[in-house]
Amino acid sequence: MDDSLVARVWGDVTERVGDDLRAVTQYEATSFATRMREDLRDVYDADDNQTIVDDTIVTLLSGRDSERTLETGEFRAFVRVFDDAWILTWVDGLPKKSGFLISIERDGETATMNDVEWCIQYLDEEIEPLIE
Questions:
Q1: 32, 79, 109, 115 from 1: Cα distances, Å
Q2: SS3 sequence of 54-113
Q3: Confidence (pTM)
């Protein structure tokens, strides 16, 4: 994993949503790199993060036929909505086993669903060209 790419995404999204950014994780099938807001570092350990990545990949694989079934275009991301956070899962060009997770405070000071949409566009336009 490229920690510098995680740091770049962290910095760019922080510019947009400030302290409402909770975490950024770049994941692949067998590895991940993550950066978290300081108050969450003690909440999630490496095993928790691996479980989140594994669950994300299983969810993506279980929905792999959605593009054909729904006929709504190419699948790029999905958003899970929790009481405290939006969790954006963005899939890069590989067969849905790699990408980014971005967690944003749902009832924070700054972020809105428009910012989640912005993250998808940002990842598509600015980050995807940097991924090998």
A1: 6, 23, 31, 25
A2: HHHHHHHHHCCCHHHHHCCCCCCEEEEECCCEEEEEEECCCCCCCEEEEEEECCCCCCCH
A3: 0.88
CB neighbour burial string for 49-76, b if at least 16 within 10 angstroms, e if fewer: beebbeebbeebeeeeeeeeeeeeeeee
Measured distance CA(8)–CA(26) in Å, rounded? 11
Q: What is the pLDDT of residues 11-67, one digit of tens each?
A: 999 999 999 999 999 998 888 999 999 999 888 888 888 888 888 888 777 666 665
Q: Do residues 10 and 24 lie in contact, with contact meaning Cβ atoms separated by under 8 Å?
A: yes
Q: What is the CATH number of the domain that holds 101?
A: 3.30.450.30
Domain of 42 in residue numbering reads as 1-128
Q: 69-85 pLDDT, tens per residue?
A: 666 677 778 899 999 99
Structural domain total, the chain: 1
Neighbours of 125 (CB within 10 A): 9
